[in-house]
Amino acid sequence: MFIKSRKHWNAYTTPILLIIFIALPAIIFYFKNGNPESYKVVKISLLILGVIIFYKSIRKIILNYKVEWIFDGNILIVKSGLLPWKKTHIEMDASQIFEPLNSKNLVGTLLGYGIIKIRRTDGLTTYILEYMMTNSEKIASEISKYIRLNKHQQTSSSNIRVPKESLSDELKKLGDLFKDGVISDEEFEKAKQKIIG
C-alpha cells in the first residue's frame, strides 16, 4: 500500500498570520510615516523586526512544504530541507524500524493531523519525528502491520526443525571434534544441547 504524508495546512497558519499581522505592518509603518527624528530609532527597529519575521515566516512555509513521508509497503522514505547541503533524504526498510508511534492532540484530532515518530532498531534513543502530518495514523498503522507480519515470518521460519539425518550428521561431527580434543567437555555439552534443541 502506497501512503503519502505531508504537512497539514494548519502548519502554515502561524507563519502566514505573523506575516500579515506583524511583519507587513512593521515594514509599511517604516515607509508610510513621515521622517521625524524622534521616531527614527523606533522606525528602524520596527523595520528590522518586520524583515526578520517576514524572512523566518517565508522560510518556515517553504520548509514545511518540502516535508514528505512516503511508505510503499516495505520502504519508508523521509524527505525534508531546502538547500542542497541541508536536505534530508532517508530511505529505510521497515525491518529497520523498531516501533512507529502516532499521537494527536485535540486540535489534531479535529483537523485530521498528528505526530509521527519512528524509533529505529539500532537504539531506543534514535528516532525520526515530525509534527502536524496528514495520514499519520495510516502510516503508523501500515508500518506496524509490516513489522508484525515480518516478526511472525521470522518466528515461523526459526521454528522449522532440522531433519533427523542432518541432526545425526551434526552430532557425529561434534563427537569427532570431541574425540580429537578440539573442544572441551563443557563446549561439547553446550553444542550438543544446541543441536538437539
Explain briefly what this protein structure is.
The chain has six helices and seven strands. With 197 residues, the chain is of the alpha+beta class. The protein has three domains: 59 residues; 91 residues, Pleckstrin-homology domain (PH domain)/Phosphotyrosine-binding domain (PTB) (PH-domain like, Roll), CATH 2.30.29.30; 33 residues, no CATH class.
SSE topology:
Layout: E1 3-6, H1 13-32, H2 40-66, E2 68-71, E3 75-80, E4 88-93, E5 97-103, H3 106-111, E6 114-120, E7 127-133, H4 136-158, H5 164-179, H6 185-196
Helix pairs in contact: 1-2, 5-6
Question: Please, could you describe this protein's structure?
Answer:
The chain is 53% helix and 21% strand. It contains six helices and seven strands; from the N terminus they run βααββββαββααα. The protein has three domains: 8-66; 68-158, PH-domain like (Roll), CATH 2.30.29.30; 164-196, no CATH class. 16% of the residues are buried. The chain is elongated. Helix 1 packs antiparallel against helix 2 (40-66) and helix 5 (164-179) runs antiparallel to helix 6 (185-196). It has helices at 13-32, 40-66, 106-111, 136-158, 164-179, 185-196; strands spanning 3-6, 68-71, 75-80, 88-93, 97-103, 114-120, 127-133. The strands form two sheets. The protein has a four-stranded antiparallel beta sheet. The longest helix has 27 residues, at 40-66. With 197 residues, it is α+β, with helices and mostly antiparallel strands. The chain starts with a strand and ends with a helix.
